[in-house]
Amino acid sequence: MANGPKGCVGKQAASIAQPNRRPESTPSQRQWLDLIKLSNLPSMLCANTIAVWLRAFTSVAALALAGCAGLGSNACAPGLQRMVQAQLFFGRNIAGGGMVSDAEWRRFLDEEISPRYPGGFSVADIDGQYRNAGGGIVRERSKQLLVVGPGGDETKLNAIRDAYRRRFSQESVLLVEFPVCAAF
Fold this sequence. Notes:
CATH topology of the largest domain: Alpha-Beta Plaits
CATH architecture of the largest domain: 2-Layer Sandwich
Number of domains: 2
Structural class: alpha+beta
Strand order of the largest sheet: 2-3-1-4
Strand content: 15-25%
């Protein structure tokens, strides 16, 4: 075995230290060595160098993960707390023709949403577009419901979605949830 740079021992170390000397190798290794000029590579295969690179990588990874730890439950600014914002999107076109009227929407709000969220919510009129099950593009007037709370409301949200789909012959009601920092 030939000795290469300090701390490097073995056939690969010898080829790095002495780039003109070819170690015994298989054809695929020879082709690889011909493509790469080993004289331009740092001696990264040395045991000491590998250990240094490994420690550096581990340190960087630990710092990155520590930074992500700040995104946990205490990541909110003072006075704010982690909550979940849920948005429901209700199309107003009724399958087979017609549209959910303002009076029908208010009745749905009073019967299905207000009892489940007596603490409050927001509703906005929006214009929506989606691709239906048949592949066609549908554009329609819609309502957006916004609820912010501690989370864990999937049962209530899904009950609202199911009630709207049944009552107004809807193909779907979109639900979007994401974490937020909020205070009431």
